[in-house]
Amino acid sequence: MDGRRIHGMALALAFLAVLAMGVVLAVRPWFPPVGSDHGRGVQRMLVYTLGATGLFFILGHLALAYMVGRFSLRPVKEVPRLSGRRERWLALAPALLMALLAEGGVLALGLPVWGTYYGIPPEDALTVEVTGRQFFWVVRYPGPDGRFGRTSPDLVRADNPVGLDARDPAARDDVVLLNELHVPVGRPVRILLRSLDIIHSLCLREFRVKQDAVPGMTISVWFTPRMTGTFEIACNHVCGLGHYRMRGFLYVEEPATFEQWLAEQAPWVGE
Amino acid sequence: MHEARPSFWTRYVFSQDHKVIGLQYYFTAMFMALVGGLLALLIRLQLAWPGHTWPWLERLLPGFFSGGALKPESYLALVTMHGTIMVFFVISFALISGFGNYLIPLMIGARDMAFPFLNMLSYWTAVPGVLLMLASFWVEGGPAASAWWAYPPLSAVKEAIPGSGLGQTLWLLGMAFFIASFTMGGLNFVTTVLNLRTKGMSMFRLPMTVWTMFISSILGLLAFPPLTAAAILLLFDRELGTSFFLPTGLVFGDKVLSHQGGSPLLWQHLFWFLGHPEVYILILPAIGIAFDVMAPFIRKPVFGYRVSVLALWAIGFLSMIVWGHHMYISGMNPLLGEFFAVGTLAITVPFTVVAFNMLASLWGARFRFRTPLLFVLGMISFIGTGGLGGLFLGNALSDMYLHDTYFVVGHFHYMIGWVTLFGIFAGTYYWFPKIFGRFMDETLGKVHFWLSFLGAYAVFLPMHFLGFSGMMRHIYDPTVYDFLKSLVPWNRFITFGAFLLFAAQLVFLWNFFWSLRRGRVVTEDNPWQANTLEWTAPTPPPHGNWPGPLPVVYRGPYEYGPGETDFRPQTEPVPVAK
After folding, report:
1. B573 lies in a domain?
2. 3-state SS, residue B310
3. 8 A C-beta contact, residue B290 and residue B380
4. Which of B181, B259, B307, B325 yields a CA-CA distance of 20 to 30 A from B469?
């Protein structure tokens, strides 16, 4: 029957075209460069998963194209029926392989990096507090005393974006900036993430850092930047009509430049 | 049961016939799909040409535009309503309430659902939900704009976004009606499948469509109540000043809110406790329909029927305990994240079994390439592509990078978008002759398939890779960031694809309504030479389904292949061994 052959061939070609489209897209350089230690682990996880899923994607579409093509060109008279036992094993084998690849990836490649990222940072880490608000980021350094001053929501004003309490001596030397995060290269950076209104999400794309900022919580993540330059900070979680422009900048600098920059910043002194 | 002369009202409006109710749901879904699809086109216009002015669109939708340009808050409202409408008022309606109602009694050999009145009530409870959702487009501040997941504080605090006014309240009420309706339907489905199977229809002779509807209904009954509770608590937070989801010290402008001690994460747990099973609630019936539609067009038994049923149960069970994979970076305890990652990837085992069985069914197929089969084959490809994307997102570490990016958008549009839609289309082309007594047009059907298949790949495959580049979701203007500027051509390409995809659906609608009046008339009750019981009923089936006694079942649903004829209906007695 001719109609059958034409349809079979067209479908087989379409499945091969999908396969080709997937491969052509997947080999393009989509990812930004990796700029942090744990980021290499994240990237390894992504590339591994791309390989493992790519294998199944290719085999699956090859099988689909082959079967649709073959059985529409040369229909078989009789299909040998399998015993229930063989049928079960045939169905289970690819599933077990998939589970091995997936769970193996999670446990061997994923878990250690995940644990580090959320774990306790090294002693020498620089601690910075980042607070999300509609629609800007407030960045706070503890100042020379190394302690963050007390804050209170009641004190939040346009000129006091996190509500620092001037009565607390530790607060008076804190450095407060908007949409601007400076960190030294090569030194662990610990970010204490907060929000005062909506759930935001801090994304440092090149450093493979992404974390929701949740009102009522202070969440700690850390990373070690290995690449200097200026990078964009993006809010990743829908937070209101200005979500799309909740943009900041991350400056990763040589340690000396960073120290000098920090020393030049006027501390917040209060009224 | 058989009224002497049903009036127009009892026959078409307040009918208790499961078939009429199924069609009511189906047509409602069709209308809502047009609304949801148009919203998607507006979203795509904005993403391809941000900042462009469309004065003629402003005349159509004055509240959404300002100076000819779409407003940012309206963009979020479009995204929110597109998601809500498509998930709950299109896919759930058409696939579960529509096909489920129409097919379950016919496929198990029952005259109707166990509770016909409850069934009617279920539809008429869903209608106010639809009306509330639609009404919210005309209220001050516009419809809800806190995304389909409605995370507080965005959905709880009126100062947070214009759509968080009356629009959000109507959204919550609309959802409450939807859930009430879905629960009534689910109770009915479960009871009917358990109690009203005809003589000989043992559980392992049920067609996959019935199995999947049954499992989905159980999942829905278990998973929806927490969302109902959460929606009520959220209404309390909004209207009565309680603090279930709102912590101490929220600041808007210079104003500190008086809420104290609540947790935004609590909502996320309650929402995803439904939200994750919900995607399986939608996918499973599409897979069930795929098995049943496939068999008559490959003229052989589907591969591994029993194994597939068991695997579907495993998927259903596991889907209830993995909701946390939507919350890896939400601030939830990271240890819990790893538990959810291991659990989520465990789903790959049963899911691969089912996907493999669909694929393996094609071995030795004697193809009849009619439109319904084409949609099943397309669906198998989507299940592969979309399902594999799940491996990136189920894993906490790779999800950390891809969370809230277009990778997620691409992934779920395959799974709960196009897998389920292809299930609906396959089912529509397949059962249309039984339902309406006419065939849909084959040529238009094939045009519809090819445009949809290629369109879905053009639109949603590239989205995965935009996610690799870090393009985030819910972005009104993707040119604000330098790193997104290079993706503009891709966004335009996707938008062209989306218009193609929408045009393809217009072909379907034209075909559907044209064929209702003009389609080739069905001359036999079993035009596809299929085995399942619905084909033994008259065309179209009358109220009560079979005028005479109920059919008796002697075999499983997939006995196709060489023999005296190449199919053996479930009602054909098994010859007694000598």
Report:
1. no
2. helix
3. yes
4. B325
Residue B551 is predicted with a pLDDT of 96
What value does the mean pLDDT take over residues B432-436? 97
Q: What is the CATH number of the domain that holds B265?
A: 1.20.210.10
Interface contact A22-B263, CB threshold 8 A: no
Low-confidence ranges of chain A (pLDDT < 70): 1, 79-81, 270-271
Q: Is residue B39 part of a domain?
A: yes
Shortest CA gap B224–chain A (Å): 24
- State chain A's mean pLDDT as an integer: 93
> Is A105 in Cβ contact with B395 (below 8 Å)?
yes
Residue B527, Cβ neighbours under 10 Å: how many? 15
pLDDT of residue A105: 87
Burial A91-105 (b: 16+ CB within 10 A, else e): bbebbeebbebbbeb
ipTM at complex level: 0.95
Reported as a single tens digit per residue, the pLDDT across B543-575 is: 999 999 999 999 999 999 887 788 999 999 988
In a domain, B445, yes or no: yes
CA nearest A119 in B: which residue?
A: B334
Contact A114 B398 (CB under 8 A): no
Number of domains in chain B: 1
| Interatomic CA distance for residues B297 and B368, integer angstroms | 5
Distance from CA of B249 to the nearest CA of A (A): 5
Say what the pLDDT of residue A271 is: 54
- Indicate the angle between helix axes A84-104 and A37-73, nearest 10 degrees: 160
- Chain A: closest CA distance from residue B361 (Å): 10
Query: Which of helix, strand or coil describes residue B70?
Result: strand
Q: Are B145 and B80 in contact (CB under 8 A)?
A: yes
- Nearest chain B residue to A31 by CA distance is B469
User: Would you call A3 an interface residue with chain B, using a CB distance cutoff of 8 Å?
Assistant: yes
Checking if the pLDDT of B298 tops 70, the result is yes
